[in-house]
Amino acid sequence: MQSFATGDSVAKVFFDDHGWVLIDTLDDDGIKQLREWINEISSWSDEGGPWLHYREMTDFGPKLCRTENFTPFHSGIRALLTSGSMLQCASLLIGEQAVLYKEKINYKLVGGAGYAPHQDAPAYPFIDSHISCMLGIDDADELNGCLEVVSHCFGEVLPMNDVGCITNDVVQSLEWTMAPLRAGQTLWFHSRTPHRSGENNSQRDRRAIYPTYNALSEGDLREAYYAAKLQQMATSTVGNNVQVSLIGDFQGRTIG
Ligand SMILES: O=C(O)CCC(=O)C(=O)O
Tell me: the pLDDT tens digits for 143-183? Predict the structure, then answer.
């Protein structure tokens, strides 16, 4: 796929047309540093703090599938996601100063599950438009469950099924594009860009960080987001899989 340098104004033109764009973000040293930080965060204990670890059952046993709410507790990752080229790129694509709304690591370790076709917007309360990206910690391709996206399709929230994912008839009518990326690249996408991903059927982990940003002019809503998410997840369940989100997009099997 065609990729752009951070700060390239053509990337903004491409994003405004497609609803997604691929950016070269980290060099080899940056990728090495990122992997060290992710190893630290993934080793934090489940009960040690207010960060949120989620686990799934795979054919190879229970595995970590997601961590959320970690930037307050890791200065390196916080700096990466809230300053420098990441924030600059979010601001360029939004068209004004951006601020971090939420962050997650999706591990998709060997045997890990995929995500049903969905738009993120229905899972993100308070404002209508956000921008997210998948920052590759590992290379992602068809075998280990890279994203698939739909181009030119971010104008509206599409019809949803009972777990907040896109209805089957609409899914069939959309044109899906595989979006493989290399570690260190970021696939930026609008919160109404339809996306999905398969299971990790390879022998290679497919870890990625997904920070989400909104326009600062709409408010710094990160703490309110996590308060609302925790409250809603404590009082309601969606679907029968591991619930990592306010919609039932994740296909991971529950443990036990
Ligand atoms: O990590 C993936 O494969 C897909 C993630 C995704 O769509 C999500 O977390 O909303």
Answer: 999 999 999 999 999 999 999 999 999 999 999 999 999 99
Nearest-CA residue for atom 9 of ligand 1: 106
Ligand 1 atom 5: residue of nearest CA: 115
The CATH number of 4-235 is 2.60.120.620
What pTM value is reported for the model?
A: 0.97
Amino acid occupying residue 189: F
In the three-class reduction of DSSP (H, G, I as helix; E, B as strand; rest coil), residue 230 is classed as: helix
Q: What spacing in Å lies between the alpha carbon of 106 and ligand 1's midpoint?
A: 7
State the first-to-last Cα distance of the chain, in angstroms, to the nearest integer: 40
For residue 32, the CA-to-ligand 1 centroid distance in Å is 23
Residue 123 Cα: closest atom of ligand 1: 10
Q: Amino acid letter at 187?
A: L
Q: How far apart are CA 69 and CA 179, in angstroms?
A: 26
